[in-house]
Amino acid sequence: MDIIAAKRDHRRLTDTQIDWVIDAYTRGVVAEEQMAALAMAVYLNGLDRAETSRWTAAMVNSGTTLDFSDLGKATTDKHSTGGVGDKITLALTPLVASFGVAVPQLSGRGLGHTGGTLDKLESISGWSAQLTPAQMRAVLYRVGGVICAAGADLAPADRRLYALRDVTGTVESVPLIASSIMSKKIAEGTSSLVLDVKVGSGAFMKTREDARLLAETMVAIGQDAGLRTTALLTDMTRPLGRTIGNALEVREAVEVLAGGGPADVVELTVALAREMLTLAGLPDADPATALADGSAMDSWRAMIAAQGGDPDAALPTASCTHDVVADRDGYLVRADALGFGVASWRLGAGRARKEDPVQAAAGIELPVVVGEPVRAGQTLFTLHTDEPARLDRALAALDGAWKVAPGDSGEPPAARESVILERIGG
Ligand code: URA
After folding, report:
1. pTM flag (> 0.85)
2. Which of 87, 165, 242, 390 is catalytic?
3. Nearest to 278 by CA among 224, 212, 223, 229
């Protein structure tokens, strides 16, 4: 109660108080209602830099930590705060690994309108997210890139606290979000980290200022923990690339690995790879070359096969598709990320509760993206699902989420100049 009262009354928490409360909560000594009160006090009154770093360290220390320092390779990783059509990890991990750097990527599943990397990869026949720490180490050593599920013993305090925040209105707190994300990345044992902090309607952070604050807070936590960390703020006002949904996004990531793919996905993949390779001691490495010459693709195939997947297997396709067509000539001037994310979720690509299944083939293809010209009758978007009953609700989510304006309307086509808005740290 002293700790709750201290934060309620705007006082700093001491290191001892933070260590004790996180440890006691993990052991079940601090009750859920007490931790809920403390989370609300933190939500309202904040944590300063030293408190946030200590809070993060306490959550790291609540469980086991992985250590790859004896692997004989530099380690680096990327974390995205989540967006719509964000399939970047899929191509980025094998791309960076193709330079001899180890990428120990512990990923999650999707919840709500943002997808999860593990759900996407599970659309590949045979691929498994469940690796023991020994298996993970073996794949890292042999292949360089590994993407798998975090064990329950990794930052267990965060697991409990996140579930509690979710039902107590305390998720949207910068120190709590930053410490939650960073505790998992620090425990994962990478020695450097690049953060992709999304900004816009489809992202956690809706404004540039909020995203910058979150990025700066995470970079500071990384520095305080001895983890070389940088961040990019990137646009999430519209979907990334031309696909949303699990198997559809895998298909697009493979296009990028084959040297093609949408310009924004390629730009972000290459930029994040440069950041990661620089942090891993290879500032002169050229990721674009590895996409063009097939070495990133070789690395992808080895990574998928090492986790039981068949990189040559056909990806699942949906039994039902529905086209949305343009009713006039003009330009696509708007495609709102949140509307498209919710529509894809309703088609079956995402889940509402942690235990729900997802459809591998559900999602949306976007043959036209913002800034491109369209003709009346042309397909703008194709909705995919295995359950036709889901179409109406998905179409309702798209209502008002996009706009075609005639070329003479004076409304600019607004093609995206760069998906990268700002770089922080380093
Ligand atoms: N993602 C996390 O892992 N934690 C948060 O608090 C928010 C998003």
Report:
1. yes
2. 165
3. 229
In a domain, residue 39? The reply is yes
pLDDT digits (tens, 9 = 90+) for 318-338: 999 999 999 999 999 999 999
State what percent of residues in the chain have pLDDT above 90: 89
pLDDT at residue 155 tops 80: yes
**CA-closest candidate to residue 176, choices 123, 147, 218:** 218
Instruction: Tell me, in angstroms, the distance from the centre of ligand 1 to residue 418's CA.
Output: 26
Among 60, 94, 110, the domain-final residue is: 60
* Cβ < 6 A, ligand 1 pocket: 162, 171, 176-177, 180-181
Of 177, 166, 239, 241, the C-alpha closest to 211 is 177
Q: Please give the average per-residue pLDDT across 197-219, as a whole number.
A: 96
**7 and 77: one domain?**
no
Give phi and psi for 117, each to the nearest 5: -60, -40
Distance CA 311, CA 308 (A): 9
Does residue 205 sit within a domain?
yes
Confidence bin at 229 (pLDDT 50/70/90) = very high
**Residue 18 belongs to what domain range?**
2-60
Domain count, the chain: 3
Residue nearest to atom 6 of ligand 1 (CA): 177
How large is the angle between the packed helices 174-187 and 49-60, nearest 10 degrees? 40
Q: Per-residue pLDDT averaged across 127-151, rounded?
A: 93
Tokens of 367: 């043959």
Q: Is 180 a catalytic residue?
A: yes
What is the rounded distance in angstroms from the CA atom of residue 253 to the CA atom of residue 384? 18
